[in-house]
Amino acid sequence: MKSETKRAAAAHELLMMNLSFFHLLVPVAILSSGHIALFLTLALISSVVIIIWIAMKAKQDNDSELVQAHWKLAWRRCRLLLVGYAASAGIMFLAWGLGAMQTDPKMSGILLVVFSRIAVVPTIVIVLILFVLSTSALSQARQGELPIK
Fold first, then answer.
1. Nearest CA to 29 among 18, 112, 21, 130?
2. Which three-class secondary structure state does DSSP give residue 94?
3. Terminal Cα-to-Cα distance of the chain (whole angstroms)
């Protein structure tokens, strides 16, 4: 039973590691470097790789009901994170479109800076919500409880 609860908890631990490392720790470190776009892109790609890994584990049916239920719950939470990414990308595309319509290059730059700050908000809010939800789910997994749907 102990091994089964560890395997069930691994789904939420992996998700929380993704959230804490690639969404909180790495961006703070990157902002002090001179290669922000490159490193943020690598962090985003790494996060998506972890999300794909969680999705693949959620699709497997060779584990117990407890383990499978927690991997599927982690995948549902990852889909929320993907919604946050899409909302942030939509805001940035809007900024690029509005910036391209400007005749003054300085105004275009100002729009991109302002909208880039606004664009991170959906992802940050979802990351914080997922931290709370995943902490609760991790506790359930460690106690051997099936997640509440």
1. 21
2. helix
3. 22
Nearest-angstrom CA–CA distance, 99 and 95: 6
Residue that is written with structure tokens 């664009």 in the block: 119
pTM of the model: 0.87
Neighbours of 47 (CB within 10 A): 21
Q: What is the pLDDT along the chain (149 residues), one digit of tens a residue?
A: 568 899 999 999 999 999 999 988 888 777 777 777 788 888 889 999 999 999 999 999 888 899 999 999 999 999 999 999 999 999 999 999 998 898 888 988 888 889 888 998 999 999 999 999 999 999 999 998 988 76
CA dihedral sign, ordered 46, 50, 51, 55: positive
Instruction: Say how far apart CA 132 and CA 112 lie, in whole Å.
Output: 31
Instruction: Give the number of C-alpha atoms closer than 13 A to the C-alpha of residue 40, restricted to the C-beta side.
Output: 14
Q: How far apart are CA 122 and CA 128, in angstroms?
A: 10
Structural contact between residues 91 and 118, judged by C-beta atoms closer than 8 angstroms? yes
